[in-house]
Design a protein that fits this description.
98 residues; mainly alpha; 6 helices; globular
């Protein structure tokens, strides 16, 4: 089996995804709301469906939706597009959002 080399930046991203997240006070309430619905919505096949349903259930939008969602899923304020990570993360959401 070929060895796969992972860059330091990819390793750092993966580590942050699976560690306990630090949510800034500004987004703590929104993160709690999103966390409540993420596992239910993660059953949806693609990110657009996931995002639409999560926005509907949470009644959050704009920065109050996207910032805490990114923090919950990646542990970072900036980074790779969530839509590209979603297919990989959706089957591991319970480990990701802890």
């Amino acid at each position: 089996m070929p060895k796969v080399l992972i860059s330091d930046s990819m390793s750092n991203i993966a580590q942050k995804i699976f560690e306990k997240k630090e949510i800034p006070l500004d987004f703590e309430e929104e993160a709690k709301i999103l966390k409540k619905y993420i596992l239910e919505c993660a059953k949806l096949e693609n990110f657009d469906e996931f995002k639409k349903e999560l926005m509907k259930r949470s009644a959050l939008k704009g920065k109050k939706f996207f910032k805490p969602l990114r923090l919950l899923l990646t542990g970072q304020e900036h980074g790779p597009e969530i839509s590209k990570l979603y297919p990989i993360l959706k089957n591991m959401m319970s480990e990701v959002i802890r």
